[in-house]
Design a protein that fits this description.
The complex is a heterodimer of chains A (340) and B (373). With 340 residues, chain A is of the alpha/beta class. Chain A has two domains: 225 residues, Periplasmic binding protein-like II (D-Maltodextrin-Binding Protein, domain 2); 98 residues, Periplasmic binding protein-like II (D-Maltodextrin-Binding Protein, domain 2, 3-Layer(aba) Sandwich). Helices cover 40% and strands 17% of the residues of chain A. Chain B is mainly α. Chain B is built from 13 helices and no strands. The radius of gyration of chain B is 28 Å and the shape is flat. The relative contact order of chain B is 0.09. The chains are: A alpha/beta (340), B mainly alpha (373).
Chain lengths: 340, 373
């Protein structure tokens, strides 16, 4: 796949110029198509996956549905394209999709080199370490001499190198290409430590561990993994639409507006923030090229951020992730919307 | 003794009776225990087989969990294979992301394809009927997938998936690729240097690329070079890529068949005053294709398996859908069962194809032999 990617890069260099010319006016294109096209991962439970009926679920899916609700007032007008790590951004660059929500980590290189814009993250992740409880380890500093399963060339491999320097401990690496094999190796006792994003770790623990209670995820988190939707760089209006759709989810949580009470709130609330949010007082959608009910439609369709989180990765899901740094800023997290 | 005869002189004894025909089982048994070493090896291998086969049987059949709405049943002590994962996920595996209420359409397509394949496999119907039937099956499948007429809800190609999609891609590839392959093979042997060079260059170029790159190019890069007014559906673009790829390989198989044909055949046909097309249709191609059949079926079976590459377009082919379905945290640990199911599916279909190919070969041989008498 690496050669493929390299080949593509060569092709894309030439293509980027063409692509940017063709993609002006994403909102018009979207309206013309009648759907918002989103590139998603499709194999990442909690973020984007299909259930036994072939229906889509996940945070990334809800982000896309929210944008569809903002544009069309109808969350079902979102269309999902299953991509992998090699194709998720290419599909966006070539105009195949209007937005990529494929748990893509926001990095400087991706943001500046590819002609793309990253939008406010919808999930903050970090690399965590998991060990068997019976080892009695409570902190990373006690791991001297332990063996660690990592994937070659992954973020986790870099994190392990950093940890060794930072804590002055030596870890022996067991390098395995495939995540499924890593899981087998770790739960089979071939290595003491598993390193992965904290969301990945908890899903592995819930799904693969013979007994999930026998394993602990150490409290330290390493590296930054802000994941959010990505759009093409050349369309400020579309960027604003996606950006403020996400802020609407955040603000709705902060103001206590949910999918269930949004109708009532629109009628009765005196809170100026809520009235602005739901377009009661001012025509909120004008600057975005949307109608004034757009934010109401978003919340009606997917709920606020807390509902999205809990339903997909939180306590209402098999992953059972705590809010952690994904809590509102008022509760010590990073979820923050600029004032409306 | 003046005459040496090799015949046993008649000494009066009755002729020796013919050796008693050995039963098949007895013969096999004798061969297995021909010498002490071979006898020992037979025993050891038999023991190993039993040692492997028994736990496998226990795992796959006796202790297996066949149906369980709750994955916890599969985690019970002593539970074997969890086939319940297939029961739970079969809709996604077989039909991908196709709208759930509309999946009966996919089931009808699968039934049509398998039904017509079984019906025509003995080749009792005339060729024109069989081929015409396939065209009808293909068109009906397209209508069922697309919808939008006859009161069927329209379904965009982005939602196509599973076995129906696999069949359609495969059918389209073979139907479009075989004629192109024959044309390329004939072109490459053409007396006109331009044509033969172009055909050779085309074949060599396409064979020089991995299929993945061809599909990637067709799906993602090509739209950048096409004028914006010209929008071709991504599925169609990729299908054209598949056809071209298949044709390049099959062309070489056909060319091999053409080369195996003695020059005398075509010269004799020429001497009879047959036109080019008539020679092609009646003399050259029937014999060349007959020779090329084993290699062609190689390519055809590969074309079926290559349909899995369509997952790079974001479509759920059977394998891609299985992969995605098995990410479900509740069922993720039963990936082995899921992959075994897909293996079995592909194995059955590919074996069917290869048996069909062999039976055509046998028929051809018989016909050629009759013609030679």
């Amino acid at each position: 796949m690496n050669t493929l990617a390299a080949l593509l890069c060569a092709g894309l260099g030439a293509a980027a110029a063409l692509g940017s010319a063709a993609s002006a006016g994403t909102l018009d294109t979207v309206r013309q198509n009648g759907v918002v096209k989103c590139a998603v991962n499709g194999s990442r439970p909690g973020f984007s996956s299909v259930d036994s009926h072939g229906a889509w679920h996940g945070i990334d899916i809800d982000t896309c549905r929210a944008v569809a609700a903002a544009v069309f007032g109808d969350p079902s007008k979102a269309q999902f394209l299953k991509t992998n790590n090699q194709t998720r951004l290419t599909a966006l660059q070539t105009g195949e999709v209007d937005l990529t929500a494929a748990n893509t980590t926001w990095t400087r290189a991706r943001d500046t080199d590819l002609g793309l814009d990253f939008i406010s993250p919808t999930f903050y992740d970090g690399q965590g370490l998991m060990v068997a409880k019976e080892l009695g380890v409570t902190s990373v500093a006690e791991l001297d001499g332990a063996s660690v399963c990592v994937r070659p060339g992954s973020t986790s491999e870099r994190v392990v190198a950093d940890i060794q320097k930072k804590y002055d401990i030596s870890l022996s690496l067991v390098v395995i290409e495939d995540q499924k094999e890593i899981n087998t190796a770790f739960f089979g006792g071939r290595c003491d430590v598993a390193v992965q994003s904290s969301s990945g770790l908890s899903s592995t623990r819930a799904a693969v561990a013979p007994n999930p209670d026998d394993y602990v995820i150490l409290p330290e988190l390493f590296g930054k993994d802000p994941m959010g939707p990505v759009v093409r760089q050349d369309d400020a209006q579309w960027r604003d639409i996606v950006q403020w759709t996400i802020y609407t989810l955040f603000q709705a949580e902060e103001s206590g507006v949910t999918a269930a009470n949004v109708d009532e709130m629109r009628e009765t609330s005196d809170d100026p923030a809520v009235r602005r949010l739901l377009g009661v007082d001012d025509a909120g959608g004008e600057g975005l090229g949307l109608d004034k009910d757009w934010a109401y439609n978003v919340i009606k369709a997917v709920g606020n951020y807390s509902e999205v989180f809990e339903r997909n990765v939180g306590m209402g899901s098999p992953l059972k992730l705590p809010r952690g740094i994904n809590a509102l800023y008022t509760e010590g997290g990073l979820i923050y919307s600029p004032p409306l | 003794m003046s005459v040496t005869s090799f015949a046993t002189p008649g000494t009066g004894a009755a002729p020796r009776p013919a050796p008693e025909a050995e039963g098949r089982a007895a013969g096999t048994l004798r061969r297995l225990f021909r010498s002490p070493l071979s006898g020992a090896l037979t025993l050891v291998i038999a023991l190993v087989l039993v040692a492997v086969a028994w736990p496998l049987l226990r795992w796959a059949v006796i202790d297996a969990v066949w149906y369980a709405p709750d994955p916890a049943a599969c985690r019970a002590e002593g539970a074997g294979a969890c086939w319940a994962v297939i029961v739970e996920k079969h809709r996604v595996i077989l039909f991908g992301a196709f709208p759930y209420e509309q999946q009966w359409r996919g089931a009808v397509i699968v039934a049509l394809w398998l039904g017509w394949a079984l019906l025509t496999a003995p080749r009792l119907l005339p060729l024109a009927v069989r081929l015409g039937g396939w065209v009808v099956v293909f068109l009906v499948s397209l209508v069922l997938m697309r919808g939008g007429i006859l009161g069927l809800a329209p379904v965009g190609t982005d939602l196509w998936g599973g076995l129906p999609l696999t069949f359609l891609i495969f059918g389209g590839t073979v139907a479009g690729g075989l004629p192109l392959a024959v044309a390329l093979a004939l072109g490459r042997r053409s007396d006109w240097p331009v044509i033969s060079f172009l055909c050779a260059a085309f074949v060599e170029c396409v064979r020089g690329f991995p299929l993945l790159v061809v599909l990637f190019f067709a799906a993602l890069i090509l739209p950048l070079f096409l004028p914006p007014e010209l929008t071709i559906d991504k599925l169609l673009r990729a299908e054209i890529g598949m056809i071209v790829f298949f044709a390049a390989y099959a062309a070489e198989a056909v060319r091999g068949g053409l080369q195996a044909l003695p020059d005398g055949q075509e010269e004799a046909a020429k001497a009879l005053g047959m036109s080019y097309w008539l020679r092609l249709r009646k003399v050259v191609l029937p014999q060349a294709i007959a020779v090329a059949l084993p290699a062609l079926f190689n390519d055809i079976i590969r074309a079926f398996k290559n349909t899995t590459f369509f997952s790079i377009l974001g479509l759920f082919d059977v394998l891609g859908a299985t992969k995605a379905a098995l990410q479900d945290p509740d069922w993720v640990r039963y990936g082995l069962e899921g992959y075994l199911f897909v293996f079995l599916l592909y194995f059955l279909i590919c074996t069917g194809l290869s048996l069909y190919g062999r039976s055509i070969e046998r028929d051809n041989l018989r016909r050629l032999r009759r013609a030679g008498e």
